[in-house]
């Protein structure tokens, strides 16, 4: 069990997005007040768009915020499946555009060729992350740590911050923070929307192999507090 798992529940995804964004915004501004900078890493996929829309409306000293990625699909930044596109379109607009964005994707032809450059970019960040915003797939993956991926055991054990991954059943090569990278944070935030994902989350809390549901690695660690936002 994680050192602290706190659960927050709202009736709708929209309510969760507003409350979660307010919580993250307060945390980031506190970090800026304390250390003159803050470091946020965000996920992609469908779930975080509404959180990003709410977060960008908060009064944060955006020019002191660094935004990094939890994972990325190795596609061009204007591709519909690009996580950085989602971040640029939903978070980094208006005053929030003053934040410094450090994308995972680089010019390398594939994720494996791009891993060393991505690792160097992550290593140069003012870590630890203040907040990492995680999602979870219905297969129990988080970041791009997929069950059945040949890279999973390395992703769970490597001392590197990132690794290239080929998902067994999802499109595009990925770059993902490793478990080590995910746990280099002051706070982990996990967004769980809908009954199906909540059932997966409850099942992940039960005993069973981490390899079957990589989210378990986050749920079972005892290094970083974890806030779970359910709707
Ligand atoms: O592929 C991904 O999936 C997960 C979950 O995405 P969602 O669309 O079900 O919200 C996401 O957390 C991850 O960043 C993304 O690359």
UniProtKB/TrEMBL annotation:
Report domain Glucosamine/galactosamine-6-phosphate isomerase positions.
Answer: 12-222
InterPro entries to which the protein is assigned, alphabetical: 6-phosphogluconolactonase_DevB, 6PGL, Glc/Gal-6P_isomerase, NagB/RpiA_transferase-like
Keywords carried by this UniProt record: Hydrolase
A GO molecular function annotation here is: 6-phosphogluconolactonase activity
Instruction: Kindly give the Gene3D superfamilies that the UniProt entry links to this protein.
Output: 3.40.50.1360
Name the reaction it catalyses. Answer: 6-phospho-D-glucono-1,5-lactone + H2O = 6-phospho-D-gluconate + H(+)
Q: Pathway membership of this protein?
A: Carbohydrate degradation; pentose phosphate pathway; D-ribulose 5-phosphate from D-glucose 6-phosphate (oxidative stage): step 2/3
Q: Name one Pfam family in it.
A: Glucosamine_iso
EC numbers for this chain: 3.1.1.31
Main role? Answer: Hydrolysis of 6-phosphogluconolactone to 6-phosphogluconate.
Family (UniProt): Belongs to the glucosamine/galactosamine-6-phosphate isomerase family. 6-phosphogluconolactonase subfamily.
Protein name (Swiss-Prot/TrEMBL)? 6-phosphogluconolactonase
């Amino acid at each position: 069990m994680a050192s602290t798992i706190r659960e927050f529940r709202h009736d709708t995804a929209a309510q969760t997005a507003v409350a979660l964004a307010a919580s993250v915004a307060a945390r980031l501004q506190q970090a800026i007040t304390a250390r003159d900078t803050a470091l946020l890493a965000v996920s992609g996929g469908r779930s975080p768009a509404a959180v990003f829309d709410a977060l960008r409306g908060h009064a944060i000293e955006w020019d002191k915020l660094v935004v990094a990625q939890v994972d990325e699909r190795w596609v061009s930044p204007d591709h519909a499946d690009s996580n950085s596109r989602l971040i640029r379109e939903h978070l980094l607009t208006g005053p929030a555009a003053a934040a410094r964005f450090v994308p995972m994707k680089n010019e390398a032809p594939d994720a494996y060729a791009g891993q060393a450059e991505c690792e160097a970019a992550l290593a140069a960040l003012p870590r630890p992350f203040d907040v990492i915003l995680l999602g979870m797939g219905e297969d129990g993956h988080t970041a791009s740590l997929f069950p059945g991926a040949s890279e999973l055991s390395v992703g769970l054990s490597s001392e590197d911050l990132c690794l290239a991954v080929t998902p067994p059943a999802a499109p595009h090569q990925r770059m993902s923070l490793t478990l080590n990278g995910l746990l280099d944070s002051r706070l982990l935030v996990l967004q769980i929307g809908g009954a199906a994902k909540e059932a997966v989350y409850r099942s992940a809390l039960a005993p069973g192999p981490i390899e079957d549901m990589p989210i378990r690695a986050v749920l079972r660690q005892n290094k970083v507090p974890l806030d779970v936002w359910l709707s």
